[in-house]
Amino acid sequence: MKKLLTISALCGTLLLAGCLGANTGDPRQGGLFGYSPKNYEQRIQDREARYEEVKEENAQLQEESASLEKRKNQKQASVAAQKRDLNQVNADIKSLKDNIRREQAAPTAATGKNKAKKTAKVSAATGESEAQKAAKIRRMQEELKRLEAEADALSRM
Fold first, then answer.
1. Within 10 Å of residue 108's Cβ, how many Cβ atoms?
2. Other Cβ atoms closer than 10 A to 3
3. Total tally of structural domains belonging to the chain
């Protein structure tokens, strides 16, 4: 009987120790009597503080996102304007090339006497001499090179 009483006391002590548990401050880890209102309130305060930190961080990220979105829209508008400019420059280049081809084709189309007559007619009609035409062609070619360089620079942006 004494043996049974000793075993019962030992089991009771172990059971009581298990129920008390360690007071860790975490209500989920405490034993039956490990609940502490102060620890529980501290845990709630810690979680609320962390929640406020996360809310502030989220607000900052939202502001940054809006700022980046605005910058993206500005860049897209800038790219669209540059594309319009590039298309206009390309149209100018095409027009200049067509003008140069016409100017160069006009003197070579006529041969012999017809060439001289045609040159005289064109010169009389436009009031330009061969030297003036050549200068005009050079200016157009220089303008073409300048516009091509500008178009190339715009396309690299």
1. 8
2. 7
3. 1
Mean pLDDT computed over every residue of the chain: 77
Q: What is the mean pLDDT of residues 80-104?
A: 86
Q: Does residue 102 lie in a domain region? A: yes
Q: Residue 47: what residue type?
A: R
Average pLDDT over residues 126-155: 77
Query: For residue 88, is it within any domain?
Result: yes
pLDDT in tens, 15-33: 655 555 555 555 556 555 5
Domain residues for the domain of 92 are 24-156
Helix (H, G, I), strand (E, B) or coil at 110: coil
Residue 15 domain flag:
no
What is the structure's pLDDT at 110? 47
Rounded CA-CA distance 154/136 in Å is 27
φ/ψ of residue 36, rounded to 5: -130, 120
Q: Which residue has the tokens 């190339």?
A: 152
Residue 98: other Cβ atoms inside 10 A: 10
